[in-house]
Amino acid sequence: MLSAPAWGLTGLLTGRMAIFRPLLAPFLNLMRPIPAIALIPVAIVWFGIGEGSKYFVIAYTVFLTVWFNTHYGMGYVPKIYLRAARSLGSSRTREFLVVVISAAAPHIFTGIRLGVVLAFLSLAADELSGASSGIGYCLQEAR
Questions:
Q1: Which residue pairs from 98-105 have beta carbons closer than 8 angstroms and sit at least 24 positions apart in sequence?
Q2: CATH number of the domain where residue 94 is located
């Protein structure tokens, strides 16, 4: 499974590099409207009742949230920031690391913050529908 930095890297690639945008963005935009809760039965069939299905649903939810916010933030850096950096003699690498990532940081951190919240919601929903342990399972048993 991809780690969290790899999720953000996908957003960086699709948001700033014209080569990766037509390759990855259509597939990721196709996945975006599918709610994670709808994938719980599929995850249970693929990974069984247990930790694997939970990891899949949580990773799906967090990946799309982090990717979308990072993609949006990287794609909408004001052009004046880029022109100012170029006029001051900044290299492409320095422009990317200092100007673009700094300008997109609020979007990136919003995606991470939303991802954490949605991870807990997805975990509880997944445990309610097919788990033998966890907070969702305890809620279902207490009901």
A1: 100/16, 100/74, 101/12, 103/73, 103/77, 103/78, 104/15, 104/70, 104/73, 104/74, 104/77, 105/73
A2: 1.10.3720.10
